[in-house]
Amino acid sequence: MRLDLVPRPHRSPLAEALAPALAFLAAVLVGGVAVSLLGVSPAAAFVVYFVAPLSELWSLQEVAVKAAPLALIATGLAFCYRANLWNIGAEGQFVVGGLAGGMVAIATHGSTGFTLWILPAMLAAGTLAGIAYAMIPALLRVRLGVSEILTSLMLVYVAELLLDYMARGPLRDPAGYNFPQSVAFDEAARLPALMEGDALHAGVLVALAAVGLGAVVLGRSLFGFEMRLVGASPRAARFAGFSAERLTLLAFAISGGAAGLAGIVEVAGRIGQLQPSISPGYGFTAIIVAFLGRLSPVGILVAAFVIAVTTIGGEAAQIDLRLPLDLTRAFQGLLLGLVLGADVLTRFRLRLVAGTAR
């Protein structure tokens, strides 16, 4: 006896729309059981995880600031994943983008006169650095056939160690009492706040613009169609005259540029200086966000919001309820698995077949 997946002749739009919501509900129920086994009321945990982050203005701003880099990176990754290319190194591209853009801010520190060019130059440097770093696994795949999964992942650690060295060495603030950090960026090198004295900054608008642009390109352009076709049927794409090599380079350039831009947005927005670590794992979490959003920019925006809410709620639960932060990461992984499983069941049905496996 075995179970086979048989394609459904007719896919229900209602089932496909409800699948993520039902998967989220199932993840909440499983999470409630886990919380109760730890001796905490599931109702209290639900309030801390999902209600409290949405109940006050400051927490909503924190959710938006955390969701912005996730949505920006995941939108870039969607281009790769739709083409069946696997960029696992967005974390490294994020770090390199923050480092390159931060170096522009440090090089212009203390400048007077016309300084309006500094912030655009930082954003451009971060984006270009992310593109250049993403080109390494892309070129290795195109020219030598090396797996982009391994190379992009290993390059993450190279980027993190490079940032650590630069923050502790050449870029360290000489007047910083030997702390491993650069000088604080000038006001001209910081993203402006959207609300006076609050955490919300213009990087949120950058992420929203990127998501909108990604939705247009993926959904309404020939390039987006080419991306989907190469991912779904490489042989048909070759017959149509599309170049898989060119698409690989373009997809990695877009995803690397988005990650690099997210890196400098984080540094110029929330942090305001270079430190040995500038990311809490945005590049890896964005992979979850991309698939939770079904590789659709609009879905990615919703998924980034959900992940940001659970992250803020998880930090509060660690303090208020003494729940481990790893429980939040486990919930996010469970949510991804359930959403992917629900998507499979909307497209296929299970059939029990007698006999041995083929």
Q: In a nutshell, what does this entry contain?
A:
The protein has 358 residues and is mainly alpha-helical. The chain has a single domain (41-322), classed as ABC transporter involved in vitamin B12 uptake, BtuC.
* Termini Cα gap: 11 Å
User: Numbering strands along the chain, what is their spatial order in the largest sheet?
Assistant: 1-2
Alpha-beta classification: mainly alpha
Q: What's the helical proportion of residues?
A: 55-70%
Strand content: under 5%
The tally of strands reads 2
CATH topology: ABC transporter involved in vitamin B12 uptake, BtuC
Largest sheet: 2 strands, antiparallel
Task: Look at the structure and give the mean pLDDT.
Answer: 90
Number of domains: 1
CATH architecture call: Orthogonal Bundle
Order of helices and strands: EHHHHHHHHHHHHHE
Q: Could you say which overall geometry the principal axes of the C-alpha atoms support?
A: globular
| Poorly predicted parts | none
Could you list some keywords that capture this structure?
single chain; 358 residues; mainly alpha; ABC transporter involved in vitamin B12 uptake, BtuC; 13 helices; globular; ABC_transp_permease
